[in-house]
Amino acid sequence: MGLALAFGVPAAHAAPLTVVVDNVCSAKGEIDLTVFVASNWLSDRTDVSDRQLPARVGSVTFHFDLPPGTYAAAAFHDANDNGKFDKNFVGWPLEGFGFSNDAHVKFFHPPSFAAARFTLPPEGATETLRLDYWSKC
Question: Which domains does the chain have, with CATH numbers?
Fold first, then answer.
């Protein structure tokens, strides 16, 4: 089933969204990107807008067809390819991560949906997320 149909919108009303994940430091593992709506911000209930692509030094580009609206995106570099975002025992990120709208983590708390949101107009859009690495790549 296409993404537009999964959202209950005919494909003719879908808008193209391109998300470029920039500052990828190595080709190890994969880049995991999820596009969220406000009601599921940073939750695990987003299977229709979660994608993984092989990591490449520099940038990795994702493509979606989604209904026009307001979204936010989060990405991480799953360098060890274990399917999860790794942190140490105090919560320090061990893998690169980033959010749309250049939203930043504050005091180990992810940004709000409002800080990371962007608008997808009917004609489509391109968003860029820059990965931050708090530990070595």
Answer: 3-130 (2.60.40)
Q: For residue 4, what is the enclosing H or E element?
A: helix 3-6
CA 110, CA 106: separation in Å to the nearest integer? 7
Strands (DSSP E) found in 55-96: 58-66, 69-78
Contact 60, 101 (CB under 8 A): no
Annotate 25-64 with DSSP letters as a single string.
--SSSEEEEEEE-GGGTTSS--GGGEEEEE--SEEEEEEE
Q: What is the mean pLDDT of residues 14-30?
A: 97
How do residues 57-116 score in pLDDT, each as one tens digit? Answer: 999 999 999 999 999 999 999 999 999 999 888 888 899 999 999 999 887 789 999 999
For residue 98, give the nearest of 26, 16, 20 by alpha carbon: 20
- Global confidence as pTM: 0.85
